[in-house]
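Bumping my old thread because nobody answered last time. Still need a sequence for this structure:
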């Protein structure tokens, strides 16, 4: 019997402090294009800050890294904040990308940081 793939979900929410994009599930070759499309659309709305909440991502591969690099270079420095699960943090730290994108332990911290630095 084939194993069922976990559901992949991306949703957007506008708050007073930022545009929050929440990602749930696995980010891989099959789902990274959808994530890229959502994030590219999100940055066309010109949010002051984009918070990418990946705290519920269970798997994250090199295609996800490519999406993060693409989006971080498309935004001005300091406009992207990342909340990440262990599955996301590990490849970010192994590749050094964590030095390019500010990591926050939770969504509240990322939003609070944004409110303090407007």
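Sorry it took so long. Here it is:
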């Amino acid at each position: 019997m084939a194993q069922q793939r976990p559901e992949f979900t991306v949703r957007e929410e506008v708050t007073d402090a930022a545009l929050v994009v929440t990602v749930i599930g696995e980010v891989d070759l099959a789902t990274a294009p959808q994530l890229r499309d959502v994030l590219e659309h999100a940055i066309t709305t010109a949010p002051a800050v984009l918070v990418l909440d990946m705290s519920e991502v269970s798997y994250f591969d090199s295609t996800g890294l490519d999406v993060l690099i693409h989006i971080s270079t498309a935004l001005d420095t300091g406009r992207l904040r990342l909340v990440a699960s262990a599955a996301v943090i590990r490849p970010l730290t192994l590749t050094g990308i964590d030095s390019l994108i500010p990591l926050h332990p939770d969504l509240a911290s990322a939003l609070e940081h944004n409110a303090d630095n407007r």
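Strands lie at 9-14, 19-27, 50-60, 80-84, 103-104. Let me know if any region looks off to you.
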